[in-house]
Structures are given as C-alpha cells and as structure tokens.
Amino acid sequence: MSAAVSLAGIVKRHGSVTALAGIDLDVAPGEFFSLLGPSGSGKTTMLRILAGLERADAGTVRMNGRDITALDPGERDVAMVFQSYALYPHMTVRDNIAFPLKMTGETPAAIERGVNEAASRVRIEHLLDRKPGQLSGGQQQRCALARAIVRKPALFLLDEPLSNLDAKLRIETRVELKRLQRALNVTAVYVTHDQEEALSLSDRLAVFMDGRIVQVGTPEEVFSRPATVEVAGFLGNPPMNLLPARLDDGYAMIEGVSLHLPALAVFGKREVMLGVRPSAVRLGAHGLPGTVTMCEALGEDFFVDLSVGERLVRAKLNGGERPAERSQVQVALDGRALHVFDRQSGARL
Amino acid sequence: MRTAVLLAIAIVMLVVWIFPVAWGLLTSFKTERDVLAYPPEVIFEPTLVNYHDVFFGGASIVPNLISSLIISGLTTALTMLFAIPAAYALARLDLPWKRATGFWVLATQMLPPVGLVIPYFLLLRKVGWTDTYQGLVLVYLTFALPFAIWLLVSYFEEIPREMEEAALLDRAGRLRALWHVILPQAKGGIAVTVIFVFLNSWNEFLFAVVLGGNTVRPVTVAMFNFISLEQTQWGRLAAAAMVGMAPVIALGLLAQQHIVKGLTVGAVKGGGRR
To answer: Average pLDDT, whole number, for chain A?
Structure first.
C-alpha cells in the first residue's frame, strides 16, 4: 500500500545552524513528490528525517495518519536509494537485493522469488552473481533500486539517485524511474538540486530555500507562477531575468527608461522586481535600449546576452536572424508575460 | 640519483635489522665451543643439538610455548570481543564525552609499563592472581584493549555511514548491521588488529617475568632462564629465540598484505561525508 505522508512543524538544528526552520508538508498516496533546492537548503536533511536516520528537534512525521516521529528507520516501512547507492561491497548483487528480505525472516523460496522479481523489474537478472565492484555506475544504480523495491515499501525515498550517472544515462534512468514508481504505485519522495529532473519527474514538488519551503505545487504551477523572487531566480535554464522597476499606474521605470505597460496598471504605484523568462524576451522596435554582448547558437535557438543599463538580460530567441554582437537593439517586454514581485519581501504580487 | 639514495638507505636498514636475526640463526646451529670461538666462525659444522635440547631436553620450552599460546590467544580473543563494539561505538554513535573518551583510551598507552609493574603485582597478590593465567591476561588486556580500540576506530571510520544507514532501513537493527555489513568490510582492519594484539602479548616480557611464575611462564621468560649467573647457554638461547620467533614470522607473512594495507589507512581519504 502506498503511504500518505504528513509533516508538521519540522525543525532541525545542527549545532548553531538551523537546517530546517519549520516544515509543513503533505504528500498524497502514490504521488511522485520532489524536494528541490540548492545544496544546503535542507532538502536532504528533510529526507533523512523522513527515513528516521535523523531525529527532528521539533515537529511530527505522520504516515497514513500514524505518528512515526520517534520510530527507528527499520520500523517505518520506507526504503531509500542513496546518492552513493550504499551497496554492500562484500555481497553479490543477489545477496544485496535479498538482504532486506533476509532481515525480515522470509523463507528461502520467498527470498528467491522476491529477488528475481525485483531484478527483472530493473533488468539486472543477468548480473545477480556479480559483486557491486564489477558493475558499471548505471548497473549499480539499478541494483540499489532493486534492493529498495524488493520488500515493497509504502514509501520510497530517493536522495539524488541520478547525480552519479552520465547525462545520457540520467535521462534514460529518469524515464525508467517514473515508470517503476507508477507500476509499483508507491509514494516516492525525491531529493534533487536538478530542476530539470524535478520538473520532469514530479507530480508535485516543494522548493526548499534556507531550510524553508518557499513553494509547493505542480511543476507547471511552480514554473509558470514562482512564488518568490528566489524561486524565480532558481528555476529555468537559464533562469528568469530579474529587473528592479518602479511602477506608476501602467508605466514602468526600468534602468532609467520608462515603458508603457498597461497590463501592470493593476499594481498601482510601487517598487517591484520584474521577472521575465528568457524565452519571453523579444527584440523589437520599442523597448529598453540594449547592446548584444554575446550570442550562442544552440540548434534552433539563440541564447543572447544583452546589456541593458547596468543589467544583464538573457534572451532565448527561436529562429529568425542571428543578432550581431555589439549591435544596438530594443528589448521588448510583454506586460502579460512579466512576473511581478514585491521589492522588499520578494513575494509574488 | 634519488632511487640510489633510497636503495642505500634501504640496504643499511635491512642490514641493521637482519644482522641480529642472522647472527642468532647461525648461533642456534653452533655447539657451545663454536659459539665462544674467537674470532667468530662463519663456516662451521652445523648441529641440531640445541634445537633437540630446546624441544626435548630437560629445559624444554614446549610447555612455555603452550603457555604463551594460551596467554596470547586468550588476550587476543577477549580484546577483540570488547574492542570491536567499543571501537564501533566510538566511531559511529553520537555519545557524550566521545572525544574525551577517545583521548583517555589513547592516553593509557602513554604510561611507561615499568611504572605499572609494581602496582599490578601488589593488586594481583591481593586477589591471589599472581602466577595465574587470568592475572596475566587481565593485565595484558589493560594495554591491548586501548591499542585495539584505537586501531579499530580508524578502520570503522573508513566505512561510509550510508552502509549501515542502508542496513538500518533494511531492518537489520544496530547489531545485525554491525555483524552483516560493517564487520565484513572491516575484515582487513580486524585481521591487522588481531595480529598486532597477538604479537604484542606473545613478545611481552616485563609483566610476564614479574607477574608470572612457575605455572605461568611464557616462552619469553623461559628463554631468559638460559642466561644464568654462571653461564649463558648461547646456543640454546638462540634456538629458543628462533622457535619463539617462528609464529611471529609466520603470522606476519600470512597477513603481510593486510598489514601493509592496514598501516596506510587514512593515507588516502576517499569520499568524505557532508
């Protein structure tokens, strides 16, 4: 059975450093949920608290309504895939996968059956008699997955499981991981600093910053409506351009230039931070005067660095003519594609 | 040039180490007359009479070898029994006073043994344990245990924490995680520790000569008896030394690989933890 997970008021301090400053979170049964954030944001600590490997200083962890805050890792019905895989080097792949079943005292026949099933799910049946040291990185990773799924846990925890794979294998494994989670219908909590992974894999995700969750939502929600300036600046590749501006009833003063943007009239007069995705930047007849400092061609797209006043604006242009470097251009902003954040608090308006 | 210098140093060291052993080996095959010949003879007629005396003669050291084996075996077994869990706890658990404990464990190694002989003697006499196996083994434990703990901690620390975290999540519990996952990976370190502890107690002389006696007389003390006021029986002494050395050398060769690997522990730290 897949588990519903509920976290309330989780606080964790490492000495004087606050790793988690009050985390509230609900994960639905069968959901693929990602904890996304830069390194040091507390996401791995959160996962370890879920696993029972660390104790929270305050707050409760519930699984299917049951308070498991004080339970040991082995009593929680959770399985985890570590970033380093943590395969037992002295055991064969078969013994690695069998280990959780042996520990729960399954019969040899049941162990044999379980190992074969788990191994075939991740397609490593032919490697069962090898030692982890004789496997490639991708095979080790699948062995770790097999060990995690073999006893059919209610909750599946993954700590950056793809970060040690090369780029091509990472994308393949990503697809496989999602398929596996769906097939097993198990709740998965996935820690990553790679936004692409989080956006492509998750049903929902939580963005961690400085030990807090700054936004929870579907990948589409988080990407299209970032809740704060930090999230806006973290997500997207390249991330959103952020320009300080003064709004004045439909006019915006940006880098000393006043633009008429009727869509922003609703915000009245205030100091804001305007966010614009590189893909929403256009080079047009009217806008902010800028200079092309660099232009990279990537297949169909151009990534263009523009200097606007003292700011750097990155644009992703699809097709069209390649802008010449050092040429003077007008950077057009579409009022409806702008994200408006309060200058002081950084919150979305 | 550098290799030449290193080679020269190696040869000098080798000669310094090997000379007494080679001398002893030669002496063990000499008759008393040949031993005392001056200038010393390098070419002589070898005899096995010393070895025969040492094994089957009136001053046979066989009972002493058995004594040594009992003492070293017991010391090693008990040391490992206590040192493994202690070292594991020091390496892994978040215990209060962990640093302080670790330091005092090591500090016991800094005391000069000579300063302890008299207090130990008085203590053992009080409980009637002089010239007993339990007395000598108990005393040996006082220095074997801290040494073993100190050595093992570094081996346990080398093993990634994720290993037992994975085992804990796999429902092994602390003890089974230690047994099934940690110990097999610390095999090399445990082998090195066993050997060092065994050799230390095998070679020990000072405590054995003071705290032992007629019942408990390890081979090191027995050898000493070939030296008396009137005469030193060089041939027999050398033969006994060779026999006493044999297990040491055998163990060393057997575990050579582990020892070299074990001594370089921590030289290359791989994959530190967050």
So the answer is: 90
Angle at B96 between CA B85 and CA B262, to 5 degrees: 40
CA distances, A9 to each of A23, A64, A187 (Å): 5, 17, 21
Domain residue ranges of chain A, discontinuous segments joined by +? 5-234, 241-342
- Nearest residue of chain B to residue A100 (CA atoms): B170
Same fold across A5-234 and A241-342:
no
CA B238 to chain centre: 20
Q: Do A88 and B176 touch (CB under 8 A)?
A: no
Instruction: Please state whether A250 falls in left (phi above 0), alpha (psi between -120 and 50) or beta.
Output: left
| CA–CA distance, A175 with A322 (Å, rounded to integer) | 35
Q: Number of C-alpha atoms within 13 angstroms, CB side, residue B83?
A: 28
Residue B270: what pLDDT? 37
The architecture in CATH of the region A241-342 reads Beta Barrel (2.40)
What are the CA-CA distances from residue B10 to residues B4, B6, B236, B261 (Å)?
Answer: 10, 6, 32, 20
Give the residue extent of every domain in chain B.
Answer: 18-263
Q: Peptide bond preceding B184: is omega within 30 degrees of 0, i.e. cis?
A: no
Tokens of A227: 């809740």
SS3 A330: strand
Q: Is A114 on the interface with B (CB under 8 A)?
A: no
Helix axes B62-92, B133-158, angle to 10 degrees: 40
pLDDT(B265) > 60: no
Shortest distance, CA A87 to any CA of chain B (angstroms): 7
Suggest the residue from A90, A147, A159 to mutate for an interface test with chain B (most B CBs closer than 10 A).
Answer: A90
Helix (H) or strand (E) holding A57: none
A103 contacts B170? CB cut-off 8 A: yes
Class level of CATH domain B18-263: mainly alpha
Please choose, from the candidates B205, B211, B191, B221, the residue with its C-alpha nearest in 3D space to the C-alpha of residue B65. B221
Q: What is the pLDDT of residues A83-108, one digit of tens each?
A: 999 999 999 999 999 999 999 999 99
pLDDT value of residue B34: 83
What is the CATH code for A5-234? 3.40.50.300
Name the residue of chain B whose CA is nearest to A152's CA: B170
Per the CB < 8 Å rule, is A80 touching B274? no
- H or E segment to which residue A142 belongs: helix A137-149
Residues contacting A95, CB < 8 A, separation 6+: A88
Interface test with A, best of B161, B169, B174 (most A CBs within 10 A): B169
Phi-psi map region of B211: left, alpha, beta (phi>0 left; psi -120 to 50 alpha):
alpha
Strand boundaries in A193-310, DSSP class E: 204-209, 212-217, 241-248, 251-254, 257-260, 269-276, 282-284, 288-298, 301-308
